[in-house]
């Protein structure tokens, strides 16, 4: 069979570090294994436009493997050209780069490596919260530029202790974020989710569920987004919702960039309605040079904690999602059933509720596995 890998170009870094598995240089560590079995493997970073290598090779590929960090966007139009495609694997978590309804129409299986990034992303969220609240980035930039002026840095630096923190989505990542925040003695931990946490789990971290999203964000000093991107969450944090947040509240999004309206976030930060915005996900990846999130700042000069999409692709996470991808391929090649926790759509139907509360024949047959934006 033909396997198409769409990964980012790791350049010299990937040549020097073989554990950078999510690159075209290191090919998830599966290149020799596939070739030894007689399969054709094509790896490319070229994914944009009609003349791209992605468009060229998708027409006869049986398996597509891509990552959330450099996704090959599989639209309905492109799917219509993929006559042999049977399996789409996300090496990592988050399959919103695929038109899932179109995949169901074609009876194409979409699967990802569930749980491969939960620790990595949860740690990144807590780091992002701290760098915003403590005004770390502009202070570091000042030092790098040769300066030393404490007052303008300290005027927008606070403690995390005694702050109210809320998560949108309390799945495997959202829950771990709350767990990691407990030692900071926050005033209160809140969550908004369509499904309540088990009572024992909620009590273990002393978290309170809020029924209304608007109500929750209005109570929070810090909001972190840990839910998936689908029709109901696209543009969720728009001008109206952000206006309901506490003036000067901080917002962290490591789920999917398109959950937040890019211009609404930039405007809110520049006006001071938001005290800061941090994350690693962008509504288009790679983000264009003129993306409003690149240079936006708070009126006091800081508040921007954006980085490339990297929270879920630490070296440790790359090892996990590479091993998971190989296991999925092994199951596919030998006809073994896939781990239900990894499946997004199969046999023309939704298996997971991670992409919205959809009517699903499969959902009636099994208990749903909780997921969130990157879990």
From TrEMBL:
Instruction: Summarize the protein's role.
Output: Catalyzes the NAD(+)-dependent oxidation of formate to carbon dioxide. Formate oxidation is the final step in the methanol oxidation pathway in methylotrophic microorganisms. Has a role in the detoxification of exogenous formate in non-methylotrophic organisms.
Identify the EC number(s). 1.17.1.9
Q: What binding partners and quaternary form does the record give?
A: Homodimer.
Among Pfam families, the record links this protein to: 2-Hacid_dh, 2-Hacid_dh_C
- What keywords tag this UniProt record? Cytoplasm, NAD, Oxidoreductase
GO BP annotation list? formate catabolic process
Protein name, per record? Formate dehydrogenase
Q: What is its main location?
A: cytoplasm
Instruction: Report residues binding substrate.
Output: 93, 117
Which InterPro entries does the record match to this protein? Answer: D-isomer_2_OHA_DH_cat_dom (IPR006139), D-isomer_DH_CS (IPR029753), D-isomer_DH_CS1 (IPR029752), D-isomer_DH_NAD-bd (IPR006140), FDH_NAD-dep (IPR033689), NAD(P)-bd_dom_sf (IPR036291)
Origin organism of this chain? Naganishia liquefaciens
């Amino acid at each position: 069979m033909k396997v198409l890998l769409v990964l980012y170009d790791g350049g010299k870094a990937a040549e020097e570090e073989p554990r950078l598995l999510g690159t075209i240089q290191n090919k998830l560590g599966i290149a020799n294994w596939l070739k030894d079995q007689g399969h054709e493997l094509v790896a490319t970073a070229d994914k944009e436009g009609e003349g791209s290598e992605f468009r060229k090779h998708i027409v006869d590929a049986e398996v597509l493997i891509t990552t959330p960090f450099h996704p090959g966007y599989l639209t309905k139009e492109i799917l219509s050209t993929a006559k042999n495609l049977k399996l789409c694997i996300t090496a990592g978590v988050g399959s919103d780069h695929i038109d899932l309804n179109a995949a169901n129409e074609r009876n194409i299986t979409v699967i990802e490596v569930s749980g491969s990034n939960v620790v990595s992303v949860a740690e990144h969220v807590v780091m992002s919260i701290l760098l915003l609240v403590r005004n770390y980035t502009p202070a570091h930039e000042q030092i790098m530029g040769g300066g030393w002026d404490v007052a303008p840095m300290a005027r927008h630096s606070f403690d995390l202790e005694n702050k109210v923190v809320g998560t949108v989505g309390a799945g495997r990542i959202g829950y771990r974020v709350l767990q990691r925040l407990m030692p900071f003695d926050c005033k209160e931990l809140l969550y908004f989710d369509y499904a309540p946490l088990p009572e024992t789990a909620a009590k273990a971290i002393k978290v309170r569920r809020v029924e209304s999203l608007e109500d929750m964000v209005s109570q929070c000093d810090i909001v972190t987004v840990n839910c998936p991107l689908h029709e109901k969450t696209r543009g969720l944090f728009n001008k109206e919702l952000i206006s309901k947040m506490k003036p000067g509240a901080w917002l962290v999004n490591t789920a999917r960039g398109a959950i937040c309206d890019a211009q609404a976030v930039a405007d809110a930060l520049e006006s001071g309605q938001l005290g800061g915005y941090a994350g690693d996900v962008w509504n288009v990846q790679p983000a264009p040079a003129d993306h409003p999130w690149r240079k936006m700042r708070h009126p006091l000069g800081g508040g921007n904690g954006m980085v490339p999409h990297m929270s879920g692709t630490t070296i440790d996470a790359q090892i996990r999602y590479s091993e998971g991808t190989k296991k999925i391929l092994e199951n596919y090649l030998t006809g073994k059933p896939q781990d239900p926790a990894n499946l997004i759509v199969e046999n023309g139907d939704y298996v997971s509720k991670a992409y919205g509360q959809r009517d699903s024949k499969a959902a009636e047959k099994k208990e749903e596995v909780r997921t969130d934006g990157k879990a």
